[in-house]
Amino acid sequence: MDFREAIAKNNRRTKLVIVSFIFLMFIVGLLADIAVNPAYPGSLKQSFLALLTGQVIPFITLIITGISIIGIFIVSKFGHKLMLSGKQFKELKREEQLDHDEKVVLNIVEEMAISAGLNYKPRAYIMETNEVNAFAAGWNEKNAVIAVTRGLMNQLNRAELQAVIAHETGHIIHGDSKLTLYVGILANVIVTFTNIFAHIAFFMRNGNNPAANQARLLIIVLNLILPFITQILYLYLSRKREYMADAAAVQLTGDNQAMISALKKISGHHDNDSREERYVKPVTEHYRAAAYIYSKGDSVFSTHPSIENRLKELGEKL
Amino acid sequence: MELFIVLGVIAVLIIWLIMGYNKFIAQIEAVTNSEKEISVQLDRRGKVFDSLISTVKKYMEHEEGVLAKVTELRSQTQSSDPKVAEQAQNELSNIVASGELSKGLNITMEAYPDLKASNNMMQLQEEIVSTENKLNFAKKAFNNNVENYNKMRKSFPSLIIPKVISSVDKEFEYWSLSEEDIKTQEEKRVEF
After folding, report:
1. What is the largest CA-CA distance in chain A?
2. The pTM is what?
């Protein structure tokens, strides 16, 4: 099992997803340009060419791109504040009185930071809940955090805990929460603008410009399917990033067995425990779901790959 | 037109050279830093172990002393001389009241009292594991950084940069044991 190759492979897929998002953004922008400004002569293809070569300035495309860039800028500045809200968190600090388990968690976080060659230590938090889970957020010195639940600390042994924290460190070094936020911005911009222009197109009268008419029709169709497409792309991305984090965990610890048994324990615990369904989850919980180490699912609509697939990628024979 | 193309190509080449140079510098710094991390961890290991072991030792000596005294006093309470027996009783209750031994002691004298040394042992164990891990991971990170640097130095087209700018042309050795050490470590077995 070559875990570097696994990371590289999933990295390529990430780039593919990002490119498709940007492609979708331009398609929507250009179609909107054609639809609201039917002065262009010729067919849909000629209109596209006219916009792309700059013969006609694609105002709407530029505006959408600008908004995306501003959104991404804002998110990269303030996005990290979204994560740590809505639950009881306690930061673990060396100076404070810690119990044995808490010290172990803090030690492991430091070990993983060394192994990953980070020049800083992510802040470590614990969540006082019996749920068995962990998550990571952030991508730099200021905002990198790793949180584990009390339940996780109680259920796993040191090697398994180390594997889980290595997985979370993997998310940090891959910049996954940044990526999630960026993709979220792109997806929202795409969907919102398609929606706006679909409404405009719907109420515009058909002119005698065939390109504009076609563009309007396409936007109305896109308005129906794009929410699904962006969601599926986003979830695909999320699952690939989980594989990457698993592979990174093995690289950082040099031990795939610990990751395998940790995943088995965690998923076993979730199978037995249906209480969590009954929780009224806070709004941020939904937002954070993708960041957890484990979440049920194995379809195109889930944030995490199935446990079987993850174990298989880790080299476990089922 | 042709002039522009030539200028464009040169500009691209210069940008590539600058970016490549910066990447080399970053990787060299990463190697140096992770090399230092190893010595930081080695230093830490020495200090942490010394202070932890001496703490644990002190506790153990102290508690051993207390235990020995308790045992002695217990045998004195059986003494035929009522004075000695009473004094021993009093001293025993003083030790118990002072909290030097856990409360379980006055209920059953036979059970081992819950000594603080066992707790310290657990912490010592965790510190040993963690410190050794940190040292190991520091070595691993160092080797990874050396690998990244070597990969870039040897692969095309980035191999051109160290040839042009000799300050980024370095020879880094991977961290590993010497041949003899590998042999002796290989033959090492855990024995009880």
Report:
1. 76
2. 0.79
User: Residue B104, Cβ neighbours under 10 Å: how many?
Assistant: 12
Instruction: Look at residue A299 in the predicted model and tell me its pLDDT.
Output: 64
| Per-residue exposure over A77-110, b if at least 16 CB sit within 10 Å of its own CB, e if not | eebbeebbeebeeeebeeeeebeebbbbbbbbbb
SS3 assignment, position B163: helix
Which strands form A123-127's sheet, in the order they lie side by side?
Answer: A89-92, A123-127, A145-149, A134-137
> Is residue A163 scored above 90 in pLDDT?
yes
Q: How far is CA A98 from CA A130, A155, A163, in A?
A: 19, 19, 22
Identify which of A152, A188, A202 has the alpha carbon closest to the alpha carbon of residue A75. A188
Q: Which two tokens stand for residue B70?
A: 């308790």
> Which residues on chain A place their C-beta less than 8 Å from a C-beta of chain B?
100, 103-104, 107-108, 110-112, 114-117, 119, 158, 162, 252, 254
**pLDDT (tens digit, 9 = 90+) per residue, A119-149?**
889 989 888 888 888 888 888 887 888 989 9
B122/chain A closest Cα distance in angstroms: 9
CB of A102 within 8 A of CB of A135? no
| Cα within 13 Å of Cα(A274), Cβ side | 0
The closest of A144, A134, A120, A130 to A167, measured between CA atoms, is A134
| Cross-chain Cβ contact A114/B144 below 8 Å | no
